[in-house]
Amino acid sequence: MNCEEAAKLMDGYLDRELDPITSQTIEQHLLECPKCDQAYKIHGSLIRAIGNATPYYKAPAELRERIQSSLRDEIAELPTRNIAREPQPLFPRREPRPRAILWETSWNWLALAAAIIFAAIIALTLVPRLQRPGADQFLATQLIASHVRSLMANHLTDVASSDQHTVKPWLDAKLDFAPPVVDLSQQGFPLIGGRLDYLDNRPVAALVYQRRKHFINLFVWPGETGAARPTMAMSHEGYQLLHWADPDFNYWAVSDVNANDLQTFKQQFETRTPRH
Amino acid sequence: MALPLKAEHASETEDFESRPNIVKFTVFKESEQNHAQKAELASFEEAILPHLDAAHNLARWLLRNEQDAQDVVQEAYLRAFKSFSGFHGSNGRAWLLTIVRNTSYTLLKKNQAVDFTTFDEEIHVAADEFASPATILEHGEDAELIREAMDALPAEFREILALQHQEGLSYKEIADIAQIPPGTVMSRLARARGKLKEYLTARIGKDK
Questions:
Q1: Is A98 in the B-facing interface, judged by CB distances under 8 Å?
Q2: Element (H, E) at A271
Q3: What is the residue range of B165's domain?
Q4: For residues A40 and B139, what is the distance between their CA atoms, to the nearest angstrom?
Q5: Best B186, B189, B195, B204 residue to mutate vs chain A (most A CBs within 10 Å)
Q6: Could you report the per-residue pLDDT of B55-107, keeping only the tens digit for each?
Q7: Is the same domain home to B76 and B120?
């Protein structure tokens, strides 16, 4: 690799968007070329500065209310419009066909009822067998819901502290297990605090970390058999999930940071978790 | 044999139309429709409302004005709801942000096309004469300065910086939202950061 190529790939490398082989080639070049190395360092600080210094404009609470009430108005208006004018594109299938209405609608409702029962059966069958891939999906939905709730309801932490020696004893006292707690400030993931949560039919520990303007919820609970499971990454509704296990615990990290950041988080967490 | 039956049906239908008790059917249908709409609204809110902050942040950076940002986000949510039945993807955030982005650009274009070229070319001519990279880094934590610099960039740069630095989106997601080829994301980010740096160097140089 020459300097020109290295300069071209700089942003991709610093954003961790390049494939591992290209990244390695760049690292090799940086070792050999102090000029490029310096350029990468400077650009890296600029990138960090942009991320740290620019404000994240959260939506004010009244905007949420405004949107919700405008959506309510929208559905309140629709049926009248449907009758008065042409059918709206939102519900194009429901055209007035008097003879067929009763039959058609009751059929739809039967199908809906059947679907609900079917879904319930599937859910009930899957819950006890959490080792199956479908069950992971189900758990993933629960995890995301829990993550979103923790951010929405202003209940991110029960114990807010960046000190692992405060968070850990607090969790130990509340749970029947002692989850590992490490601060990763040095690695760019400062610890914000801890929280109790309830998942998979049991109380679990939720450790809260921050990445730039985003939060990572790390759910921890004891594993079943002491067997480590391979890391599993999922993306669902715009959230990233990462699951791994060591002989003692199950881990699920949930966040809206990008997949690479979450991988880095996992590596850093694992490296710094004291081994038993 | 089937033909007479059909004819009978047809006449019956017409009879039904003229009878007053057809109203019952209509009311029944409407309340079910209402129910379906409520269910749809509930699932829309569950999937899309959690991304309100992301939507607001993007609109705010694009429009540089709180009132416009709120209007655009509200409009975008209405649009999103109307096309929600056609959304089958799993990435609700990227889908919503695409709509927010398009709605923002519509307003930007309406307000003035000038926005796309507002970057003041004069400021950053020979910027490197003013300040060294080390000086920029000293000012790197100057949040107000960096915010100003970002606000001074053209919309396409503000957008890509907000998506990458604040939402932490991957290049692929950014490409989807900004509707550019994935290969363009890296070079556009590089140009955006380059411009930002030029602006910063020029500003720091001037202040001295």
A1: yes
A2: helix A259-272
A3: 115-207
A4: 18
A5: B186
A6: 999 999 999 989 999 999 999 999 999 888 888 777 889 999 999 999 999 88
A7: no
If asked whether residues B187 and B134 sit together in one domain, one would say yes
* Cross-chain residue pair A50–B133, CB shorter than 8 Å: no
| Count of beta carbons in the 10 Å neighbourhood of residue B50 | 23
Question: What's CA A77's distance to the chain center, in Å?
Answer: 36
CA angle A82, A83, A86 (to 5 degrees): 55
Sorted by where each starts, the structural domains of chain A and their CATH numbers stand as: 3-52 (no CATH), 130-272 (3.30.200.100)
Q: Are residues B54 and B119 in the same domain?
A: no
Number of structural domains found in chain B: 2
Q: What is the CATH number of the domain that holds B139?
A: 1.10.10.10
Q: Which amino acid is at A99?
A: R
Q: What is the pLDDT along chain A (276 residues), one digit of tens a residue?
A: 889 999 999 999 999 999 989 999 999 999 999 999 999 998 998 888 888 888 889 999 999 999 999 998 888 776 544 444 444 444 444 444 444 444 445 556 677 778 888 788 777 766 555 444 567 777 888 888 888 888 876 678 888 888 888 898 889 888 888 899 999 988 889 999 999 888 877 889 999 999 888 899 999 988 875 556 678 888 887 889 999 888 888 899 999 998 889 999 999 998 888 765
| Alpha-carbon distance B108 to nearest alpha carbon in chain A (angstroms) | 19
Same domain (yes/no): B81, B119: no
* Judgement on whether residues B79 and B36 belong to the same structural domain of the protein: yes
Distant-in-sequence, close-in-space partners of A111: CB < 8 Å, separation ≥ 6: none
What are the DSSP E strand ranges found in A172-248? 191-199, 202-211, 214-222, 232-236, 239-245
CB nearest B193 (choices: A11, A94, A236): A11
Q: How far apart are CA A131 and CA A129, in angstroms?
A: 6
A132 touches chain B (CB under 8 A): no
